[in-house]
Write a structure and sequence with these properties.
By secondary structure, the chain is α/β, with parallel strands linked by helices. It is built from 18 helices and 14 strands. Helices cover 44% and strands 16% of the residues. Strand 2, helix 1 and strand 3 form a beta-alpha-beta unit. Helix 1 crosses helix 5, helix 2 packs parallel to helix 3 and helix 7 packs across helix 17. The radius of gyration is 24 Å and the shape is elongated. The structure holds adenosine-5'-diphosphate and magnesium ion (MG).
């Protein structure tokens, strides 16, 4: 699948057999400035996924006649504002009737030329926008400008235990703290998610509810499923039982991420350390991947493999930030050696603070709240500020306020603490 960034024109996804992909009409569409070809896909299932991911204004479908009707239904299920235009191999009145019945907005007959297609797309959009205007709804172009409003940050560790969940929970709370934005934290560590425990949250509604209703996610379902945390963030908990997460598909994952992205300025996602369909889909959807590692040889070996894997799977280097947890470490590898070995810059470090982090984990309070003055909490806040676009120094070799840090490390009780709140219904 070839995908381009979102421009200002009408977003179009083309689903056409591989042998049609390089026909002149596609090149013609791509050269048209008012048309933004978001993806051109040969395989039907990938096409539906692309529609789900990009939420285009229009899908142009050139598939065998017997697949067209079902394809149109699937597209409306994953993207209700998308308009479908179908391509037929020859004049076929019976097929036209069926396709119009399924909801096709226009039907073109081969051979195609791109001027005819552009004229059709424009007409389809004009008619829809006129209808929208009468109904007092936003125009299609206004909708496409709002796409990808929220930023999705995927936190992953290439090895269990490096601190991925600790980073995800604290980062989400720190993002709320630095910018006051709407922040969601989603626990995609599906089988043994720890977010609920680390934030002392409970709800009978989880990510599983969104997965089973993936094609009808709306505000009321989101309201029920997102659990409020005392810090102000909203949390999507992992399914309560490991078996509930079996066979989650990329289509379901994309639908959930899209629902989150549309509602929150930042969605922080914690995920597990293996590279399955769930992780791959999250990687493709994320604006920023935070790869968490520690300065020990086994973790660094996996990190190198993960970075190579990202490169092979088209995740842009610039979108992957390395976060070195529990650094600096006594007798550990130096920052320079780590960067040289991984051939990737370390974006931020988080110091090890056993007493504070363990206390926080056991109490179900993020360390940025339980020990806000600690070096580790300050490091989380800096990481959050960097994600929010601030130009801050995110590598630190020591606490910025050593006295406050020392005083607080010795304190058994944090200076302030949230009530042991249980949310959800
Ligand atoms: N910076 C840190 N200082 C001290 N302990 C930490 C730090 N980061 C993580 N830990 C501890 O390491 C363990 C693993 O962390 P966790 O976030 O669950 O890792 P992962 O999600 O990658 O498996 C937990 O016991 C956690 O409290
Ligand atoms: Mg974890």
């Amino acid at each position: 699948m070839a995908a381009q960034g979102q421009g200002t024109g009408l977003g179009v996804v083309i689903i056409a057999p591989a042998d049609a992909l390089d026909q002149d009409w596609i090149a013609g569409l791509q050269s048209e400035s008012s048309i933004n070809v978001l993806a051109r896909v040969g395989v039907l299932q990938r096409g539906i996924e692309a529609v789900q991911q990009f939420q285009p204004n229009i899908v142009l479908i050139d598939r065998p006649v017997d697949q067209l009707e079902e394809t149109i239904h699937s597209i409306y299920a994953v993207s209700s504002n998308t308009l479908c235009v179908a391509v037929l191999p020859q004049q076929d009145m019976a097929a036209v009737r069926r396709l119009v019945g399924a909801g096709a907005r226009d039907i073109l007959v081969k051979p195609l030329n791109h001027r005819e297609i552009i004229a059709s797309l424009r007409q389809v959009v004009q008619m829809e926008d006129a209808r929208r205007q009468r109904a007092g709804q936003q125009s299609l172009l206004a909708i496409s400008r709002q796409k990808r409003a929220g930023k999705v940050i995927l936190v992953m560790g290439p090895k269990g235990g490096v601190g991925s969940t600790t980073v995800a929970t604290n980062l989400a709370v720190a993002l709320k703290h630095v910018g006051g934005h709407d922040v969601a934290l989603a626990d995609f560590s599906l089988q043994f998610g720890d977010v609920a425990v680390l934030l002392n949250l409970f709800s009978k509604h989880t990510l599983h509810d969104l997965a089973i209703h993936y094609d009808t996610i709306d505000d009321s379902l989101m309201e029920r499923v997102m659990v409020p945390h005392a810090s102000g963030i909203k949390v999507l908990l992992a399914p309560a039982e490991p078996e509930l997460s079996a066979d989650m598909s990329g289509v379901q994952v994309n639908a959930i991420v899209r629902a989150l992205r549309a509602r929150y300025a930042y969605t922080v996602i914690d995920c597990w350390s293996f590279l399955d369909e769930v992780t791959e889909t999250l990687m493709a959807a994320a604006d920023q991947v935070l790869l968490v590692t520690t300065p020990e040889v086994p973790a660094l070996k996996n990190t190198k493999q993960a970075l190579e894997y990202f490169t092979r799977h088209g995740v842009h280097r610039d979108n992957v930030a390395l976060v070195l947890n529990r650094f600096p470490s006594v007798k550990g590898v130096t920052l320079q050696d780590i960067q040289q070995h991984l051939r990737h810059p370390v974006q931020a470090n988080l110091p090890s603070d056993g007493p504070a982090v363990t206390y926080a984990a056991n109490k179900g309070i993020p360390v940025v709240q339980s020990h806000p003055q600690s070096w580790v909490a300050q490091s989380f806040l800096k990481l959050a500020a960097w994600i929010a676009g601030d130009n801050v120094e995110t590598i630190t070799q020591g606490p910025s306020k050593p006295e406050a840090f020392a005083a607080q490390s010795e304190t058994k009780q944090p200076r302030w603490r949230l009530g042991m709140r249980k949310s959800g219904s």
